[in-house]
Amino acid sequence: MKRYIALIVFITAVTSLFGASPVDKFLRSKSVSANNTAVLVQDLQTGKVLASHNTDKPLLPASIMKTVTIAGLLMEKGPDDRFHTLVYADGPINGHTIEGDLLIVGGGDPTLGADCAPESADIAEEIIAALRHKGITTINGNLRVDTSLYTGPACPPSWVAADLNESYGTGSHALNYKRNASGSRAVKYPETNFLRDLSSRLKGAGISVKGGNVVDNDGLTDIENASFLLDHMSDTYAEVMRSCMMRSDNLFAETLLRAFAMGRGKKGATSAGAEEMLEYWDKLGVPVKGVTLIDGSGLSRSNRVTADFINGILQTMGNNDDYASFMPLAGQEGTLSSFLKDTALDAYVAMKTGSMKGIQCYAGYKLDEEFAPTHSIVIIMNEIGQRGAARKAAEDLLLDLFDGE
């Protein structure tokens, strides 16, 4: 009798599972917490919802926050702007001598001296070339960096203390250098490392500096009375955004958020950027109820988003020629290189991932044969069990949803 009852229970469970919707099967997965998971998949053209669960529940987004930051800046400033690091002779030029400081004004460029794409010109070599062009062989003052462009702390106060020592948890500065990291460790004062390296390079080029290395965050320099020497430009915002999304670079995302704030006439502070970002999407009609934005990268565990909010942004950006192209292709690139690999959706899904302890998230698009977005995809999983099982559950959900599409 007991065996008979157990068999009936098993058959009932199997029948129920096979009759369940793709979302129901996904939510029953062992490593997925149904109460702490949100799903929303929607056709961009018709508005038809293929999957929906907990769409208005605020959850922790991790790095899919980058999709919000980049969408806002792309809408506000476009893909072609660049970061600028300006160099001046802050003092009279008499013959071969600057009677004052060599001034470098930080512009927030996160790619300065970076060892990743997008690569930019060697700023030290550019400075040496600019000085030689003017015939300058001596700087009687200091090497000075102006860091006044950014206000507020380099790292949001809500970032976990343990992250601040890691290369992925380094702060964003008006002058970033070599991704503000040394190996796997964060560098707290990248301006100091920049000045040290520049001093050495100038000496090697036969250019004498009589003073020391100075970091100035007061912003008191009268640039109008200084002599312009160089405008070091980063690659375009589009290339910075693509690198940010492909590698999930927190520093890049934080500088992009500050650039968004300044582009809207606000101070170059993380808090100002987050406040402006939420207001921006609210005015565009994206649902913001329950949403709390703290940073641009998603490293803060105080961020909260809803699937409705992320989906609203994806829907708004669905026709943007650049936006989806910034996201890794499933089975092919970046953080999605093994996701959906060798399946029917390999190379037909482009998404940003988000991972933290207990969190696995996805936000992006289903693509057609021309790599144009057809559906928005949002999967936010909090309080997951085993990460590999949660990833597999998300893969199975998408394969079920788009079977035959």
Task: Describe the fold and architecture.
This protein has 405 residues and is of the alpha/beta class. The chain folds into 2 domains: 22-78 and 241-401, Beta-lactamase (3-Layer(aba) Sandwich); 82-235, D-tyrosyl-trna(Tyr) Deacylase, Chain: A. Helices cover 31% and strands 20% of the residues. The protein has helices spanning 2-18, 22-27, 65-77, 123-133, 190-204, 237-247, 250-263, 270-283, 307-316, 387-401; strands spanning 37-43, 49-53, 82-90, 93-94, 97-98, 101-105, 138-139, 143-146, 181-182, 185-186, 208-209, 213-216, 227-236, 349-356, 359-367, 373-382. A 5-stranded antiparallel sheet has the order 2-1-16-15-14, with helices on both faces. Strands 12-8-6-3-13 form a 5-stranded mixed sheet. Helix 3 (65-77) runs parallel beside helix 7 (250-263). The protein starts with a helix and ends with a helix.
Key features of this structure:
single chain, 405 residues, alpha/beta, Beta-lactamase, D-tyrosyl-trna(Tyr) Deacylase, Chain: A, 2 domains, five-stranded mixed sheet
